[in-house]
Amino acid sequence: MEPLILFILVLSLLAIGIPVGISLGLSSILFVTFFSHDSLTSIAISLFGAGQHYTLLAIPFFVLASSFMSTGGVAKRLINFAIASVGHLQGGLAIASVMSCMMFAALSGSSPATVVAIGTIAIAGMRQVGYSKEFASGIIANAGTLGILIPPSIVMVVYAAATDVSVGRMFLAGIIPGFVAGSMLMDTIYIVAKVKNLPAEKWQGFGAVFDGAKQASWGLFLIIIIMGGIYGGVFTPTEAAVVAAVYSIFVALFIYRDMGPLQETPWIYESDSQEGKVGFRGTVYGVSFLLFWMMLAFFATATSETITASQRNLVGLVIGVVFSVFYILKESSRQSLSAGACLSAGLVIWRRNLALMIRKFFPALFGTDTRRTMLEGTKTTVMLMFIIANALLFAHTLSAERIPQHVTEWMLGVGFNWFTFLIAVNILLLIGGQFMEPSGLLVIVAPVVFPIAMELGVDPIHLGIIMVVNMEIGMITPPIGLNLFVTSGITGMSLAKVVRAALPFCMVLMLFLILVTYVPWISTVLPYAMMGPEIITQ
Fold first, then answer.
1. Is residue 310 exposed (0-12), middle (13-18) or buried (19+ Cβ within 10 Å)?
2. pTM of the predicted model over 0.70
3. What is the pLDDT of residues 263-297, one digit of tens each?
4. Which of 149, 397, 486, 499 lies at a C-alpha separation of 20 to 30 Å from 299?
5. Which domain, by its residues, includes 290?
6. How many CB atoms lie within 10 A of CB 528?
7. Does any domain span residue 74?
């Protein structure tokens, strides 16, 4: 009877409109005060422990990285690359939008950020070439959910913190499911495009694909930094989040120049000489390769006892110089220019840009745009951490009352096996996802279902991916589906119209949920191959 009182308190507070974080914390305090043998001291200890949880420290930095990568320039470059790659297919612009969402998800770890960054540009583009507003909105609302499935996912970090499983394994586990989900959406769009005779873009050639990749490379390299750093044994996930945040700030302010005092300041002016343009581009290719080489080689050989840093850097320097010289010689010969003049004129452009970056360094770091972006990231972080802290408090109360153990005993007693248990988990999360924010719901449900899953032999990483996919679907199902509200906001459509637009593609994600639930190797093959199975000691 007493556990029932706890859930009645939560539901009652939610029903009268109290925010989910306050509802979880307040219901736990009231229950412990009046109905439990536990003490308020344990609540204080639990809250203190939540603040000391090392894994959760990754969340603020991933949110900050997402904020700077959502400035608009990164999204535009990803979309251009996607259009150049798949735009020539029938329905290519819609397929490119899904592909862009997949790539941006790997940068942001956030579904709403993905919808805003990609949707703002992609929906307008699809409308211009003849797609209906409803069709375009439905695609973006669904594809945006990949933000919490493709690593680095903030929701995966929350699950790892709630169950004490490896963040690295969770990130690995999300790669194949994220690719499969995106592919299913793109295949569905292609079929619909064939039936409705949707337009295709003109094939721009492999040169355009290369140019698109080149423009998007600085953003996409963030994926390599995060994943390579973690699995190369260089960073912990929390340290990777810090590096990602610093890298995102640097790229947004000084490389892409999408914000701050250098905004709209080109690296090359129209008035620069042709020799300078050739020389600068050649040296940029060489420097870019050197930087990428240094990072990749560091991740691959950081633990090696035979390969030193100087050896890695020397190899990268030699190859970078070769690239630069080859490009300058090739372009100068083609344009009948002097290679030496190209190099010297290119160095002048380098000097101008470096002097500008040094002069604007502190104004950029502390400027209006930077402070506004950091403020938005801080607001998101505070909201998430408040919900998570109260959800962990609720989970502590559940554990103190041994509710997960009682539920486990009951399920085993009535004959549940792993198959029927996963059906029950999916139903519970699909219903809960309609009314609660993903992180809060996951922290509440995970401590209850996790012991049962372990008893029934369900892999903890597989369970985590199942729960994340359910959270995906929850983000596009009313009444609280966050992606629906975000899509409605950027399109001006009513919520009801967005729901109807998203529903057909939501069915694709439901099929994907069934596939992920009952084909475990989709989630576990990469973690098992690279890091081995998750070992849980209880």
1. exposed
2. yes
3. 888 999 988 899 999 999 999 988 888 888 887 77
4. 149
5. 266-359
6. 17
7. no
